[in-house]
Automatic annotation (TrEMBL), chain A:
Pfam families: MreD. It comes from Paenibacillus nuruki. This is Uncharacterized protein. GO terms for cellular component: plasma membrane. Keywords: Cell membrane, Cell shape, Membrane, Transmembrane, Transmembrane helix.
From TrEMBL, chain B:
GO terms for cellular component: plasma membrane. It comes from Paenibacillus nuruki. This is Cell shape-determining protein MreC. Belongs to the MreC family. Keywords: Cell shape, Coiled coil. The lineage of its organism: Bacteria, Bacillati, Bacillota, Bacilli, Bacillales. The keyword Coiled coil applies. Residues 129-284 form the Rod shape-determining protein MreC beta-barrel core domain.
Length: 176, 291
């Protein structure tokens, strides 16, 4: 139980860092081209190694947090896309034994899925007028690379922690 | 038909559809021009804002330190230049004071109303940036001044270089700044800025309406054909329209071309602010206008 709370707090910490410390680490040339969604990548790990429902709730909550804190135009875009894409990917790929390459594929698909859903929503609500090809080259692909590198870095520790939590849950379920 | 009912009987699909409708309703509602936020929103914004502030400040100091080390070489030249500008300012100050006095006297003679007098008065207050959202389409920054400090919606925000955006939402201790990079004439919430050229304030006029993300340039429209505006001119807000005070630096003209319908011209403007490496910004406190 304690471990779960600590992990949740760490997720919140990553959410805070992605909008405070990470922008300073991005080189000036790539400034509007890298839009870090690091907390979302961690939620994808939860979807694959833990459970898709947890990932859905986490996606909705952290998306909503992002929406409310950076409320410029509308609330709900991030919440909707993060929740739904994490759930769908969990539905398709959830397996506690997912190997390294599979998880990386999920991260790649997830990163593209999130950016595409956001682009689609902004297009529907008239917040963007840039052509899709431009968005693809300007920030979706650089984002993909950033998220891939981040997932590579955190893969081992995050997987180990999530497996521990999952094992604990299984044991609790058996006890009851 | 029976199949369709079976499909709708699927609980997951049903929840998904309801969720979709709820979210679209939420987005549609929040997209409209809201006067103030509800208390849960304010609470979340301020709590997260405080935590972000704790992280952002040290990070910006560290980044600033490296930048300073990099700039050490240019320090001497920069100092010389600054001394020169300071001397020029001093010279102009005397002249400026005289003009201000004269202007005030004329306004009194012409019986300006209180509101007209207050229109272009403003105070600046410094604000620390607490976090940045780099999203290309809805980019915002969060600053640590809020309702309790008297910040209101639609106040302009400037940096030392030039105008960066307007306040979009406020909570008691924090506000969100919608950047100029999200300017869009089709968006009903985005407000065009009435602008003019420094030194040709009486002859030149146009509206800063949109920002091109691909080129990083602002577009100024509705420029009359006989307007003296030309390449290299410095663009500032004109103060007409009442929303923004006059004299806020927006950018430099890069090119001028004939507009969409051939009746007016448009100009491409390089924004003065660079929209990155945020440290401090200034909120322009305009006098409250009666509506």
């Amino acid at each position: 139980m304690v471990r779960r709370i600590v992990l949740l707090l760490l997720l919140f910490l990553v959410f805070i860092c992605e909008s405070t410390i990470v922008p300073w680490l991005i080189p000036d040339v790539l400034h509007t081209r890298l839009i870090p969604h690091l907390a979302y990548i961690l939620i994808l790990f939860v979807a694959v190694y833990y459970h898709r429902h947890t990932a859905l709730v986490l996606g909705l909550v952290f998306g909503l947090l992002h929406d409310v804190v950076f409320y410029g135009d509308m609330i709900g875009a991030y919440s909707f896309s993060m929740g739904l894409s994490a759930y769908v990917l969990g539905l398709l790929f959830q397996s506690p034994r997912a190997p390294y390459p599979l998880m990386m594929t999920v991260v790649l698909i997830g990163s593209l899925l999130l950016d595409n859903m956001l682009y689609g929503l902004y297009l529907v609500f008239g917040l963007t007028r840039e052509p899709y090809s431009w968005a693809l080259g300007h920030y979706m692909f650089p984002n993909l690379l950033l998220h891939f590198i981040f997932a590579l870095l955190v893969f081992v520790p995050v997987r180990r922690q999530l497996e521990k939590v999952a094992k604990l849950r299984k044991r609790n379920a058996e006890d009851e | 038909m029976l199949k369709l009912f079976k499909l709708l009987g699927n609980k997951k699909l049903f929840i998904l559809l309801v969720g979709l409708i709820l979210f679209i309703a939420l987005m549609g509602f929040t997209l409209t021009n809201r006067t103030s936020l509800s208390w849960p929103e304010k609470f979340v914004r301020d709590t997260v804002g405080f935590v972000q502030g704790v992280f952002y400040k040290p990070a910006s100091y560290m980044a600033g330190l490296f930048e300073d080390i990099g700039n050490l070489n240019n320090l001497y030249e920069e100092n010389q230049e600054l001394k020169l500008t300071a001397a020029q300012y001093l010279l102009q100050q005397a002249n400026y004071n005289k003009l201000v006095q004269a202007n005030k006297r004329y306004k009194e003679d012409l019986k300006f109303t209180q509101q007209q007098l207050a229109q272009n008065q403003f105070d600046l207050r410094i604000a620390n940036v607490t976090s940045v959202d780099t999203d290309a389409d809805t980019g915002t920054i969060v600053i640590d001044l809020g309702q309790n400090d008297g910040v209101r919606k639609d106040m302009p925000v400037i940096s030392t270089e030039g105008m960066v955006g307007i306040i979009s939402e406020t909570s008691p201790f924090h506000s969100t700044v919608k950047l100029l990079t999200t300017l869009d004439p089709l968006d009903s919430n985005s407000k065009a800025i009435a602008a003019t050229v420094v030194g040709k304030e009486n002859e030149s006029f146009g509206m800063i309406e949109s920002y091109d993300k691909a080129t990083g340039m602002l577009t100024m429209t509705q420029i009359k054909e006989n307007d003296p505006l030309k390449k290299g001119d410095e663009i500032v807000s004109s103060g007409s329209g009442g929303l923004f005070p006059s004299g806020m630096i927006i950018g430099k003209v890069v090119s001028r071309q004939v507009g969409d319908f051939g009746l007016t011209n448009t100009a491409t403007i390089q924004p003065a602010a660079d929209f990155k490496d945020w440290k401090e910004v200034f909120v322009v406190y305009t006098k409250e206008t009666q509506e």
